[in-house]
Amino acid sequence: MARFTGRTAIVTGAAQGIGAAYATALAAEGANVVVADLNAERGAEVAAGIVADGGTAVFRHVDVADPESAVALAESAVAEFGAIDHLVNNAAIYGEMKLDLLLTVPWDYYKKFMSVNLDGALNMTRAVWKPMMAAGGGSIVNQSSTAAWLYSGFYGLAKVGINGLTQQLATELGGSKIRINAIAPGPIDTEATQTVTPGNLVKDMVSRIPIKRMGTPEDLVGACLYLLSDEASWVTGQILNVDGGQIIR
């Protein structure tokens, strides 16, 4: 399939893990991919790997917490490829996040965390919606989590915010022919998860899931591509769980 031939997609947090899988899959289906991340070395490696496999990709540095950086990324994508058709808001503080309570987390850290994990998705959406509208419309996927329905402290709170942001923006963007949805993964086997989540906790989570294994980045790819593609042309404001049945809503 080549559902994205001639289209341009920005994927934030694409230097590794889930974001890299999204970027690689989009390129394999014909998209011009902007691999966007703070980590220049690993981001450039992902873009180079896509090109080596015959795809089209460039790396661009971005700090999604900074509105000016988000706008610069959008302008760079338009300058490079002529338009922006798709955005995946995947960037987040996760692998190295502090483990603390809402009641005790240092306020400066809490604000920094939310500026990336929640406000970053809004910054990027604000940066791309006008060029996306100028291209005739497009689609956006936000990265949520089943943490939105479980106790997960400020991480879970940020994902509750992502869900609400997705639903609210669906109304604001609909008139511009832009769709926005979110994916809520369950526990995914990535380097970041291995760093932040104790092994015994992961084992306990998996034991409670109907499909008793951790997910992989590849398990999320199909949902992301579907929501971005024209196959989902009448789908917006939705949060799609890809979690092995962890959460039943």
TrEMBL record:
It comes from the Bacteria. CDD domains: SDR_c (cd05233). Keywords: Oxidoreductase. The keyword ATP-binding does not apply. One of its GO terms (molecular function) is oxidoreductase activity, acting on the CH-OH group of donors, NAD or NADP as acceptor. One of its GO terms (biological process) is fatty acid elongation. Belongs to the short-chain dehydrogenases/reductases (SDR) family. PANTHER family: 3-OXOACYL-[ACYL-CARRIER-PROTEIN] REDUCTASE, CHLOROPLASTIC, SHORT-CHAIN DEHYDROGENASES/REDUCTASES FAMILY MEMBER. This is NAD(P)-dependent dehydrogenase (Short-subunit alcohol dehydrogenase family). It comes from Nocardia neocaledoniensis. The lineage of its organism: Bacteria, Bacillati, Actinomycetota, Actinomycetes, Mycobacteriales.
